[in-house]
Design a protein that fits this description.
The relative contact order is 0.20. The protein has a two-stranded antiparallel ribbon. It has 3 helices and 2 strands. The chain has 79 residues and is mainly α.
Length: 79
Amino acid sequence: MDKDLLDAIALLQDVAQSAGLEIYLVGALASDVAAREADLPTFRGSQDADFAVQVDGWGTFNKLRSALIVAKFEPAPNI
């Protein structure tokens, strides 16, 4: 797995944790990580990471979004 991707995941986890939120890795990369942890072959190579996070409202969403932008994540133009 790409070091930049691992660094981005770790940074996202730190930002979410400092906001008191839990994040969940989902999608193809989650399957790859689980397979690697179990010493099983991976079936899909993915260079993106999809996450789920539950927030209690738009205020919390905007707080997390702002914290991620400060941490140098680039927002999607349509969100």
